Amino acid sequence: MSTAPTVYHALGPLTQAGPVTVWVVVLVFVFFECALIIGMFLPGDTLLLAAGVVLAQGDHEASAWTLGVVATGVAVAGNQVGYLIGRYAGTRMLARRNGRILNRANLARASAFFDRWGFWAIVVARWVPWVRTLAPMIAGAARMDNRRYILANAVGAVCWVPTLIMLGYYGAGLLDVVPWLKDAAALVAIAFFVVGTGYGLFRYRQEMRRPIDDTPATPADGEPEDEDQEEGLRDTG
Q1: Smallest Cα–Cα separation from 67: which of 162, 160, 153?
Q2: Which of 197, 127, 190, 121 shows the shortest CA–CA distance to 164?
Q3: Which strand (E) or helix (H) includes residue 211?
Q4: Model pLDDT, residue 17
Q5: What pLDDT is stored for residue 237 in this prediction?
Q6: Quick one: DSSP state of residue 9?
Q7: Could you tell me if 113 and 220 are in contact, meaning their C-beta atoms sit under 8 angstroms apart?
Q8: pLDDT at 223
Q9: DSSP secondary structure of 64-131
Q10: Which residues does 236 contact at the CB level (< 8 Å), separation at least 6?
């Protein structure tokens, strides 16, 4: 028996997901990952690659390119929401006592990364999963100039979203000469996404059950020590 029918059957309806389904999943997840703290626990990179692979199954090249453009816009909007959350709420309430991800140490590391690189921190953060979600909030809490932030946000999104979607699409296309391997690639991509999402939601629930770390705020938590430091942070980048 050929391997191809077996793998194809195992993939089931997931490999037959139409462009509309792929679009809805990608846009919702990209927004969550860029705007809300739950995004730290979602497999954004894997999702974008998987979307490209699944669209390649039906030769939806135009849809893949269009999705890349629209999802880039959603990523920019999501990060802008994260910026506003940080600007008006700060980051003090994020840290959890004994949290594995949401803890003071990780907030301090993300803040130090932002303080050191400024504008480029927002661009590069797109490629660092948990920093990707924290960076906008830290930038907002630090009162980074909004115009500079929007520019960095847009540059990062353009470099991140279309790159991964089209890498998945054209990477899968290279396997056309071995159909069963192309199906297997789709199965692996979807499996990583499904398992990663389930595990991520589990970790998120575990973190949210921990009490908020109410240690007195420090500058690393997004609160400038004095007016001079606050003024400097507004011009970061």
Answers
A1: 162
A2: 127
A3: none
A4: 53
A5: 43
A6: H
A7: no
A8: 46
A9: HHHHHHHHHHHHHHHHHHHHHHHHHH-STTT-BTT-SSSSHHHHHHHHHHHHHHTHHHHHHGGGSHHH
A10: 114, 115, 118, 119, 139, 142, 144, 145, 148
- The alpha-carbon radius of gyration of the chain (Å, integer) is 20
Taken in order 151, 156, 195, 191, is the CA torsion positive or negative?
positive
C-alpha span between 133 and 35 (Å, rounded): 7
Instruction: Please spell the DSSP secondary structure of 135-202, one letter per residue.
Output: HHHHHHHTT--HHHHHHHHHHHHHHHHHHHHHHHHHHHHTTTTSHHHHHHHHHHHHHHHHHHHHHHHH
Q: Reduce the DSSP state of residue 25 to 3 states and report it.
A: helix
Residue listed under structure tokens 């699409």: 169
**pTM for this model (two decimals):** 0.75
pLDDT computed for residue 41 by the predictor: 84
Q: Using 50 as the pLDDT threshold, list the residues of the chain that sit under it.
A: 1-15, 219-237
In this predicted structure, what is the pLDDT of residue 122? 87
> Which amino acid, 25?
V
